[in-house]
Design goal:
Largest sheet: 3 strands, mixed
Mean pLDDT: 77
Structural class: mainly alpha
Radius of gyration: 23 Å
Number of strands: 3
Low-confidence stretches: 1-47
Strand content: under 5%
Shape: elongated
Distance between the termini: 34 Å
Length: 270
């Protein structure tokens, strides 16, 4: 539970930092006027090779394939249950980490997450992108509920026993992931406290989802001009692809990133 709350808090913190940082950028007075960026910022002979789209059929050739993967992931969630009452032992942890069904579940979710991110970068308002996000999140919530016992069983051990458990040589390569169990006293919480944590978790994620819809779908993005004179409307996907492309100079990427941040200026003091 603490891990879920921690990640939710981190996500909200990132949003706050981004909004705060962007308020210091000079405002764009006319959003529809293309912003010209110097052509010297890019290697001319590489311009034609810059990717702007990708073929997602390499991940899922059709919608039915995605749905089948999610259905399979849901069935694999039952694999976690066999570790109830066994996870607070070295043997139980090793078996859990090496379980082929659990690994397959994680592979399916990681693939769906990549698919979702790429879809949203292409068009965050696309109905299929939103459906993929919803379906994947539904599966992840089921898995979270099914694995609550892991933290509960390990936390029920005394700090001394936990330190001994995770000091085993066979768990050495996973020491970083178990750090929270050995650095501070963990204790069981009441059902009422757990309900409060679950409620906060849901609120935190919904807040982030609302921000995502606004930031990636409804935000009035400005236009900008490529070095070859081509005009295009800015988007998160375009910014991300340019940021990761070595054919663009650092100055070009900096200017584009500042242009993206300037979008938030119109919401100063709101």
């Amino acid at each position: 539970m603490r891990t879920r709350v921690f990640f939710a808090f981190v996500l909200l913190s990132v949003v706050v930092v981004l909004l705060t940082a962007c308020t210091h950028v000079t405002k764009q007075e006319a959003w529809e006027k293309p912003v010209e960026i110097e052509s010297s910022y890019i290697v001319p002979d590489k311009l034609e090779n810059l990717p702007t789209q990708w073929d997602l059929t390499a991940l899922y050739p059709d919608h039915d394939t995605f749905y089948r993967d999610m259905e399979k992931a849901e069935k694999l969630i039952t694999s976690f249950e066999k570790y109830k009452g066994k996870i607070a032992t070295v043997e139980g942890i090793i078996a859990y980490l090496n379980d082929p069904d659990i690994r397959e579940y994680q592979t399916l979710i990681d693939k769906a997450s990549l698919y979702q991110n790429l879809l949203q970068n292409l068009d965050a308002a696309d109905s299929w992108a939103l459906e993929v996000q919803s379906r994947r999140n539904s599966v992840k919530r089921q898995k979270t509920n099914a694995t609550e016992f892991i933290g509960e069983e390990i936390s029920a051990l005394s700090l001394q026993k936990r330190k001994k458990l995770f000091s085993d040589e066979r768990l050495k390569e996973f020491a970083h992931y178990f750090k929270s169990y050995t650095e501070e006293e963990k204790r069981n919480i009441s059902d009422e406290q757990q309900e409060i944590i679950d409620l906060y978790d849901d609120i935190a994620w919904e807040t982030y989802n609302i921000y995502s819809v606004f930031a990636y779908t409804e935000m009035p993005w400005p236009k900008f001009t490529y070095p070859d004179g081509t005009e295009e409307k800015l988007s998160v996907g375009i910014v991300n692809s340019i940021m990761a492309n070595p054919n663009y100079s650092q100055d070009f990427r900096n200017d584009l990133l500042l242009l993206r941040c300037s979008v938030y200026d119109q919401y100063d003091n709101t």
